[in-house]
């Protein structure tokens, strides 16, 4: 978990599920795991994971290998690629949704302009997660 | 009116008959994404582009109104270069765009339309019809989810049927249905313009 007072600038990678209650700027890449953005979470990053649940705020492109869920408290500004997308009542979303499974694993040109951090940065390690700092 | 209700659509079933769930579908949806719409399209292999055009109104037109209008609409309708829409869901957008803005809007959108593109829109039978402050989603092939819009968009000035037909440019009205509240539900299909 990334706690409410934690700010990470860089790339987060690893092989375990992640809960973000703090702030991440850069990139989150957990292709085989679930990423949850808590209500206090603020992510200014592209997010790649198996399942992505958003209760907080995300500005960036989101790629879910299986599923993306934007909860009623979620606020997303970016493009989503996933075979299944669920938007709960009250969720805020601005961007495009690609639910074409053939392209769900690929990368596409962004439609919604947003800022995210660089992806080639030095790495830090923390309990199963790799944090690349800027 | 309650915060949400449903409305039967006579024309959406006809429209969706043209699409196979296995066929890739690219959709331009005017307005905010609603849960029902996202859920409905999850049965299709599709790409959905949501743009709340009404929230950008009124356009800020300076000295060169025509160029400024086009520039703002181009900035608003930003899609990847290879995007080609099969389906446009305009809902009641046309009732809020003046003649020049509507013509420019459609000309900016035109390069992103497939030759076979179809569209859905609401217009009015009687121009004095009061503004309905609604946003729309698709619950089923024949049922719309209708919710109240949080803010009132400016510029409500619906066009007469004749005016609208003349302004549509790259679209042609294929079918229209008169609704009980004097609105018209329109099914449009792409037509080639002399410039193409």
Structural summary, described in words:
The complex is a heterodimer of chains A (134) and B (196). Chain A has 134 residues and is an all-beta fold. Chain A folds into 2 domains: 7-99, no CATH class; 106-134, no CATH class. In chain A, 0% of the residues lie in helices and 57% in strands. Chain A has no helices and 12 strands. Chain A is globular and about 35 Å long. The model of chain A is unreliable at 104-111 and 115-127 (pLDDT under 50). Chain B has 196 residues and is an alpha/beta fold. Chain B has one domain: Rossmann fold, CATH 3.40.50.150. Chain B is built from 5 helices and 9 strands, in the order E-H-E-H-E-H-E-H-E-E-E-H-E-E. Chain B has helices spanning 12-16, 35-41, 65-76, 99-109, 161-167; strands at 4-8, 25-30, 46-51, 85-91, 113-124, 134-140, 143-148, 171-178, 183-190. A 6-stranded mixed beta sheet of chain B has the order 3-2-4-5-9-8, covered by helices on one side. In chain B, strands 1-7-6 form a 3-stranded antiparallel beta sheet, with helices on one face. The model of chain B has no long low-confidence stretch (mean pLDDT 90). Chain A binds chain B through residues 84-89, 91, 93-102, 108-109, 111, 113, and chain B through 24, 32-35, 38-39, 41-42, 44-50, 52, 78-81. Strand 10 (92-98) of chain A pairs antiparallel with strand 3 (46-51) of chain B, so a sheet runs across the interface.
State the main characteristics.
heterodimer, A: 134 residues, 0% helix, B: 196 residues, alpha/beta, Rossmann fold, 6-stranded mixed β-sheet, 3-stranded antiparallel β-sheet, 9 strands
């Amino acid at each position: 978990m990334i706690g409410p007072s934690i700010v990470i600038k860089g790339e987060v990678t690893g092989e375990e599920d992640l809960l973000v209650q703090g702030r991440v700027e850069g990139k989150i890449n957990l292709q085989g795991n679930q990423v949850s953005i808590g209500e206090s979470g603020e992510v200014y990053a592209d997010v790649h994971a198996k399942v992505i649940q958003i209760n907080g705020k995300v500005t960036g492109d989101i790629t879910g290998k299986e599923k993306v869920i934007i909860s009623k408290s979620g606020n997303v500004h970016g493009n989503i690629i996933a075979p299944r997308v669920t938007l709960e009542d009250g969720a805020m979303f601005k961007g495009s949704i690609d639910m074409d499974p053939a392209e769900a694993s690929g990368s596409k040109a962004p439609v919604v302009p947003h800022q995210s951090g660089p992806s080639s940065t030095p790495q830090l390690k923390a309990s199963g997660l790799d944090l690349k700092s800027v | 009116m309650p915060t949400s209700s449903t409305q039967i659509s006579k024309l959406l079933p006809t429209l969706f008959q043209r699409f196979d769930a296995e066929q890739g579908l690219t959709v331009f949806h005017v307005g905010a994404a609603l849960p029902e719409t996202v859920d409905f399209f999850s049965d299709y292999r599709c790409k959905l582009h949501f743009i709340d055009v009404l929230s950008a109104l009124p356009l800020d037109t300076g000295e060169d109104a025509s160029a400024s209008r086009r520039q703002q609409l181009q900035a608003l309708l930003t899609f990847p270069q290879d995007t080609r829409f099969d389906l446009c869901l305009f809902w009641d957008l046309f009732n809020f765009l003046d003649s020049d803005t509507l013509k420019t809007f459609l000309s900016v959108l035109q390069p992103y339309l497939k030759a076979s593109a179809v569209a859905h829109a609401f217009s009015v039978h009687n121009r004095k019809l009061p503004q309905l402050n609604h946003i729309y989603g698709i619950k089923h092939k024949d049922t719309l989810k209708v919710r109240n819009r949080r803010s009132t968009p400016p510029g409500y000035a619906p066009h007469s049927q004749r005016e609208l037909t003349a302004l549509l440019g790259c679209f042609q009205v294929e079918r229209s249905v008169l609704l009980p509240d004097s609105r018209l539900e329109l099914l449009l299909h792409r037509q080639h313009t002399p410039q193409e």
